[in-house]
Structures are given as structure tokens and as C-alpha cells.
Amino acid sequence: MEQDNRLAKAELLVKGIHDLPTIPEIATRVLDMFDKPDVELEELAETILVDQVMASRVIKIVNSPFFKPLHEIKSLKRALIYLGFRQIRHIALTCSIIEAFDGKAGVFDVKTFWEHSFGVGVVSKIIAQRIRYPEVEKAYIVGIVHDIGEVFLSFYMKDEFQRIVDGIRGTTRSFAEAEENLLGTTHCELGYCLARNWNFPADYCDVIAHHHSPGTASGDPVLAAIVNLADLFCSVRHLDYGGREWVSFRLAEEPAWEILKSFSPNFVDLDVERFCYELDERVTEVRDLVDSLFEGMIRK
């Protein structure tokens, strides 16, 4: 019942925004194509070429310092071959979301936000591989978009969100707790409403809504638990954003830990300290990738 109330409040807030951004149909079409086992390179290239802005952006990003091609890549087909289908999917989706909010002033630094988001994507993928979750790439994509509700708050409810950020700074309170106290809803429900408006797949919407309460996920609690733990790990390994100066958690007390142990009993043997060191090694990689995305979106 509480979540129903939060969702109803979120729907009212989202409907109250008259200039709510949309993302190009091309992004969701590319996203859907990866659920098809027989998708061909030609089909993907033709789909992206419908949107010349997206096509030129992909070419620019593949030539960025992060991807380091030996020679300049000038055609979309060569870019697709070089990056691979899966890289194209998250680039298309993420660039579309960044573009949707381009030119608006927000509460937090948007690059720091995407560093956290991609960090959660990377860690979600690692956890998914460790537990042998069958859809590793889905875990990666959902990890990237899990916090889009925070983007809505940062850009469209700046005064309220600034109060939330200021209120939790230097405390152990979470964004979700402070958001519910002030707004009657959280970024989880707001993100769900955005994702639904943007025609994201149902599994993605469900995880966005439940990434802080994976046990209540109706579609795939294991996927929600993967993103939940990835979010926590990133928050303590220098890939966080917003007002919290420090975050800590006890893995054994997290509901997501129990869900993943039930799915993969061997996961109980995870060496947490070593795992955190491994994540630290990925921080620079994540920041370089976000730099490449933003450089690729600069209009000349």
C-alpha cells in the first residue's frame, strides 16, 4: 500500500511537468533489438542511420581516447564492428537520456551522476557473472539507468531536491528516505514513471522501481538484488554523487545478499575486501568512458 501511494504521487509529479523530455524512438528500438537472437549488423546499422545525429555521435565516441582505435573510423558499420553490438546499445540509450536533459541546470554535477551510473552498470555485470545470472548484459544496462529518477528531481524539482541533498549531507540517511519524507515519493517511483513513458522494457521498469527494495520486485528480484548491491558497492568505492560524505553497509545484513545467496549458494564465498580492490581498479575506466560520452556529444 505504501508503494502504491508513492507511485500515485510520482505519477502526479511527472504528469505535472509539461516539458517532460522524450528520448528518440531510435534508442528504444536499438534496445529492443538486442532481445532478438538473430539481429544482424546490417539491420542495426540501418536502424541507427535513420537518426543521423545518433549515427555521427557513435562515430565520434568510437574515435575518442577511451576506445583508442588505431586508425580513424569514419563509417557507422566499421564503428559497429569495432565497438560490438552490446557497446552500441548502452551508448545509444545513455546518450539519448543525456541529450534529453541537455541545457538544463540541475542540483548535482551530471558527469558525476553518470560516473556513478556506469559504475553501477559495471559492478552489476561483474556480480551477474559471478553468480552466473543468465542475462549479464541486461544487468549492465539496468545498472546504468537505475537512478534516472534522481535526474528528474535534479532538473525539475531543484528547490526540493537541494533541500534533500543538504539534509542528508554528513549523515547516514539515504536519498530515498529523505525524498519520501519531503515529497511522499522517491526517485525509484519517479524513475519507474519516466522509464514507462520512454517505453523501456518491463523488466527494466521493475528494477528501477525496486532497486532499493529488491525483495518486493515483481518481475526479477535477482536482477533487482544485483543492482542493489552494485549501487551499495559503488557508493563506498568513490563512485557516488550527491550530499553523502560517507556511506557504509554490512553485507550480511542486506536483503539483496540473501536473495543472491539463494540464487547462487557459492556467492557466500565472496571475498568482499578483494572484490572492493577489484572495483577500485575500474574507477578510472568508468570515468574515462563517461568523459568519452560527453566529448562525443559536444556539437561542433
Written overview of the protein:
With 300 residues, the chain is mostly helical. It folds into two domains: 2-21 and 104-296, Hypothetical protein af1432; 22-100, no CATH class. The protein has 16 helices and no strands. The protein has helices at 2-15, 25-33, 41-49, 52-62, 76-83, 85-100, 110-131, 136-145, 148-156, 158-168, 175-183, 187-197, 202-210, 221-236, 255-263, 272-296. The radius of gyration is 19 Å and the shape is globular.
Number of DSSP helical runs? 16
| Helix fraction by DSSP (H/I, runs of at least 4) | 55-70%
Q: What pattern of helices and strands is seen along the backbone? A: HHHHHHHHHHHHHHHH
**Class from helix and strand fractions:** mainly alpha
Shape: globular
Please describe the biggest sheet, giving its number of strands, its sense, and whether it closes into a barrel: none
CATH topological fold name of the largest domain: Hypothetical protein af1432
Low confidence ranges: none
What would CATH call the architecture of the largest domain? Orthogonal Bundle
Strand content bin: under 5%
Radius of gyration, whole Å: 19 Å
Distance between the termini: 50 Å
Mean pLDDT, rounded to whole units?
84
Give the CATH class of the largest domain.
Answer: Mainly Alpha
How many domains make up the coordinates? 2
